[in-house]
Amino acid sequence: MTKKISVLLVASLLLTMFSDGLFAHNKLSEHEKKEGFVLLFDGTSSEGWRGYKKDVFPDKWLVEDGTFHFNPEAEGRGGDIIFDKKFSNMHFKIEWKIAEGGNSGIFYLGAENDKFRAIYATAPELQVLDDAKHPDAKAGTDGNRKSGSLYDLIPASPQNFKGAGEWNTTEVIIKNGHVIHMQNGAVVVQYEYGTQMWEALVARSKFPGINPDWVNLQEEGYIGLQDHGNHVWFRNIKIKEL
Questions:
Q1: Which residues of the chain have pLDDT under 70?
Q2: Is the peptide bond before 158 cis (omega within 30 degrees of 0)?
Q3: How many CA atoms lie within 13 Å of 102's alpha carbon, on the beta-carbon side?
């Protein structure tokens, strides 16, 4: 009798966890719904997304197995993708995994500018990288090109990338110029843009050579995912406007 009750209790707990979205991908948990999060990707279509500076969704970005998968071997055109709505203060969540030796990125506060073909020329980047095998992990300064970092500006600390082929969780929280990167449950980067410290930080980076106005981030902009020519997967893309 005791064993039967235990089995029923476990089954009931698992049912509750599934219904709350704890095991469901591209779903909102009851807690997230109450908090005001919305999905930006339903796992089955590219609705709401398009290519950067394009009206269509690029061919090399595949919707498969509940993920956005950038596949460099796929036929057709690639390019960065953006969600077709601008955000400012927000709590953004996403999960990603990268192929061995791969490189990609997650962008926010991006702008579409006639001068530039890629979103990195206008937006901060949370680095997505195989820290063990991609050479960019050893470039930059103090690890500021490793996963979770504010690319080429602030290194992620702790550097807690799980490894190629493993799912990593990322959160970006923006409130009135203060930005937080979270990776795998830990705060790894914090900064404020629009300050003298921010201007000095950017001045020492690669960005003034790409776009002299890069330092002046727009208060409202696009979320983007990068085509860096390597296999990368994204899922569970959610946002709450603050």
A1: 1-23
A2: yes
A3: 25
